[in-house]
Amino acid sequence: FFAEVEQLMAKAKERYKDATWLGQNGHPWAFEITNALKEYRKLLKQNDKNAVASGLKDFKKQTTVWCVRVVQGTVPFPPKSNPRNSDDAEALKKRLPWAQQNDQ
């Protein structure tokens, strides 16, 4: 799992290496994923299942925030040229099984 995530993060870092507008930390979502992965490893070493579950829950919430930013076109994502349908957020939520569980 970790090796696959690290490979994907290396590809993302390579893709944005020349994007100076992103700042020294690179793409903000990639930066957050990298930090979350480090924290997840620490929690696993502590062998605290509650802390691991809490960390994953927080990461899922932050993922939803980033998805909303993409759909809405907020920083660091430019706004879309076409107006967005109000159903977009619900359609996205339906594709995220864990988001549906939180509504129950």
Walk me through this protein's architecture.
Helices cover 68% and strands 0% of the residues. It has 5 helices and no strands. It starts with a helix and ends with a helix.
> SSE order, as H and E?
HHHHH
Q: What is the number of E strands?
A: 0
CA-based shape: flat
Alpha plus pi helix count = 5
The level of helicity is 55-70%
Low-confidence stretches: none
- Whole-number mean pLDDT: 78
Strand content: under 5%
Note the main sheet. none
The Rg value, from CA coordinates, equals 16 Å
End-to-end span in angstroms? Answer: 29 Å
Structural class given helices, strands, pairing? mainly alpha
Sum this structure up briefly.
This protein has 104 residues and is mainly α.
Structural features:
mainly alpha; 104 residues
Break the fold down into its secondary structure elements and pairings.
Layout lengths: L1 H14 L12 H19 L2 H24 L15 H7 L2 H7 L1
Helix pairs in contact: 1-2, 2-3
